[in-house]
Amino acid sequence: MRRDAPIPPLLGISESVSVVLRRQIPPRFEPPRSWLGGLPMMPHHIEWPRSISSEYPDRSERPLHFIAQIACADLPAELWGGLGPRQGWLLLFIDPNQGAPQGPDAFRILHVDALGSEREPPADLGPVHDGVYSGFDYDYCRTADEVPRRWRRWPVDLVVVPNEARIEGRRTRVAPENFASILYPGQPVASDRERPDEIEPFTWRGALRVLDSMARTYPPSAKPPDELKIPDRLVERLSQPGYIGSILAVIEADDANWTAMSRADLEGPEPEDEAMRLRRAQTRRAAENRRTRREALAAFLASHPTLESIVDYLHRSERELGEWSTAMRERVAGERSVVLAHDLDSPIPDDAWRALKARLQQDAFRFWRYSSADRDGERSHVAFYEHEISAWSFQRGHIRELVADYYVDEAKRPLIPPAVLSEFEPYWRSLYHNRPHRIGGYHDGLQSDARIGPTRKLLLFQIATDDAMHWCWGDVGAYYVFIDMDALKKMDFSQATITLECY
């Protein structure tokens, strides 16, 4: 080859390592290095990134949401084949409220040479989830305006792992099986599908979240309470001679058939086998529930034996439901005022919580509703069911999220009961679908597969769905930020690209 001949471009870089962003459990409250969520730390001359969304250009320019800040000095020399920064910090911002984030408006990568002070977000920063696309919900907020503008701050350690991939069937897999157990050796790790049961509030703020969730899930109706529309098919059916009486007869026949089929579980000597005893107890409870439902329906139809009386009842119960709903919301607001009088981040006595919960459960309304039913393969028949709702029916406390908020707060972590902590720490160590947050190396694709071998397309960030952070990207997906090796060599992060993959 002549000396002045052009040098052919590299086919790509063979990466030997990847860096996993391992959540600190428990968090170490020490000088900041790398973290997810919270607030960025940037020199004062660095502006908070903003963009005009390609999906919502009418909303004008808006701030992006801060995701992560990584200490480049902690990155291994081998990462990205030796390219990229090893001083300063890399910051990732995204627009989490786009359905198909693909353009430069959806994210921003910053490289800063110093930490600077913690930066408060711009006043016009929107909610982390606007409710348009799928994601974790915020039902514990009274209104959409109260949805958080930022995620909790969780420090991470940068763990260097070999950059390895394997072929399984038609897919390329990167993370080893049960990767969380490797990242947290000798520590309990829950299954990624094993979420802790919802727990009772243990502080006054937890009680407040329960009350606020009721306001969110059961807001005032937009229509007048007496605006119930009775469908023509209901009137036609109930007008047929003998039809109202047949409603109970159908239930009685169905119950008789069920009883005959279940007779072996209902009668005879008590079985010795524990599983069979449990089955008998369940069957007997079901029989009692059927009897109670049948007797209640008989009483309802006896009190309302005609089309006119049934229609009158439906209109009246709709009005009464509206009146109860209005009064219930006022009572919940009163309970909220009482809770707000306390130091929210202080323990709520067990008896105080039990009394509040009992009042919410007892604040109830019982009524009958009609529904469509099939009879012998024929559709659009009428059935009636009794319902009971209470103020408690609408609670969506999400105390799990409060536990996580307390856990990453040095002053508030002692509020968490030890039994709760022992259940949640294994859960927070888990990886949703075995997919970590990572920098460099092969990506853990959902819809795409990493190509084994040299590559010009280097992974800047993989940010996965994460229960501990309350992150759910699309349908439990992940963001992938890539950059061409030449752009990374020039430290030109404006050339990076982003992709969202989900199920």
Automatic annotation (TrEMBL):
Q: Which domain of life is it from?
A: Bacteria
Which region is the signal sequence? none
The UniProt entry, under Pfam families, shows: DUF1963 (PF09234)
Its name, as the record gives it, is DUF1963 domain-containing protein
Give the species: Bradyrhizobium diazoefficiens SEMIA 5080
Higher taxonomy: Bacteria, Pseudomonadati, Pseudomonadota, Alphaproteobacteria, Hyphomicrobiales
